[in-house]
Description:
It is a single chain. By secondary structure, this protein is α+β, with helices and mostly antiparallel strands. It has 2 domains: 2-97, Ubiquitin-like (UB roll) (Roll), CATH 3.10.20.70; 101-454, Glutamine synthetase/guanido kinase, catalytic domain (Creatine Kinase, Chain A, domain 2, 2-Layer Sandwich). Helix content is 35%, strand content 21%. It is built from 15 helices and 17 strands. It has helices spanning 2-10, 37-42, 102-115, 156-159, 161-173, 199-219, 278-289, 291-298, 304-307, 353-369, 387-392, 402-410, 413-419, 421-440, 444-450; strands at 15-21, 27-33, 45-48, 65-70, 76-77, 84-93, 96-97, 118-134, 137-140, 178-183, 189-194, 197-198, 223-225, 239-247, 326-328, 335-338, 341-344. Strands 8, 9, 10, 11, 12, 13, 14, 15, 16 and 17 form a 10-stranded mixed β-sheet that branches. Helix 5 runs antiparallel to helix 6 (199-219), helix 10 (353-369) packs across helix 13 (413-419) and helix 12 packs antiparallel against helix 14. The radius of gyration is 22 Å and the shape is globular. Glutamic acid (GLU) binds at residues 127, 184-185, 235-238, 307, 319-320, 331, 345.
Amino acid sequence: MKDLGERLAAQGVHTLVAQFTDVLGVARGKFVPLAHLDDLLTEGAGFSGPSITGTGLPRCGPRSEYWARGAASTAVALPWLPGYARIVCDGFVAGEPFESCPRQVLRRQVARLQAKGWHLRTGIEPEFFLLKQVAGRWLPADDADRLRKPSYDLKSLPRQRGFLQSLQRALEACGLDVLQLDHEDAHGQYEVNFGHDEVLASADHLMLFKQAAHALAEEQGMVFSMMPKPFADQPGSGLHFHVSLWSGLALDRNGNARNLFVPHRPDGALDAAGQLSLLGQHFAAGVLAHSAALCALAAPTVNSYKRLGVGESISGTTWAPAYVAQGPNNRTALVRTLHGRFEWRLPDASANPYLISAALIAAGLDGIERDLHLPAAVEDDLFALSLDQVRERGLALLPQDLGAALDALAVDPVIAAALGPALLTQFLQLKREEFTAHARHISDWELDRYAAAF
Length: 454
Ligand code: GLU
Ligand code: MG
């Protein structure tokens, strides 16, 4: 700890950002002077528990105090906030790991994997918008960003190089391996990819990315948005997960760990053309089997259901899944299988990375424990099928709104157990309130359609 304090001080750090993530996936925390690093790493920084969304903690008594205890290995100086270093914290209440802290929820699932001698690696792909508000209307920040097919637009991308370059440099300075930055398929929409990592580290990295992007976009007079679907006629923002399961407790220094999703032939030789090992198929089958409940966490806002679903967009398609299906390199399916990994395309940008990672593990382990088999691979374009054809193939539809997803979560014992009863109760209550508030809201669309119609 002394070493860490000295290292941070040598980097000019005077203050720590003790950061944790609330149930909604929003970063919360406090500034703590560097002189109190030891306190943060041992006891933690104290917070009023009920003031944090979704804790369900009481207003008084010993359980009213939420302790955010720093994980020393996560300490990193923040380039966009000179003099400040972020430390990711785990929640503790009354001296015990807090059962409803999203990072603790994920730790519990990581421990289940560790008990089997496994660890999960995820590569999270954030898509996002850069917006501005003009006379109360939300618009893409860049007025000139107008291509009919915006994917990979190399005219608009360089106009945002100020933001993108500062974001890239900031993430790299924090130790992330930034792989690619591109213009996505909607006006004002971008994607940044960084290297895959241990599931907990990946979730920490995503939260770091969000904090960096919010701050750096604000510096440029823009709003960084991970709203799932800001514009009805354009694709929304996904948060795809690339998933692989490995032997051992973590990659050792030489990278020695075996990817258990890589397929082999019956004679033991590598199946270079194959997609997933039998274990990988069981895991992915579990993820598909729990899709309806997973939706509540992976698509957790009322707006999320405007992204999920087959629909035309100005660019031609939405690229978001609508059916419970899997296929080799099939981007129209919910699970896109690749060699030795799969891409889980369900989550949107508003999802809490800790909770969906935990639920993903629980679903995958259930698939392994029950030897679930993948449904037949879909090789063709699911977006081109009529609803009748979808039904003929026996493909289930994803929940059509947040209410249906919450109902599915409430009756899914596997995903519910991963969250724990206290968090499940809080999550359902918060999200049912959100669903009801939206349902009661009378929108301009309704007035335009009905006011003078009858
Ligand atoms: N934006 C799409 C989504 O909402 C995904 C586009 C892509 O395939 O990268 O999932
Ligand atoms: Mg993308």
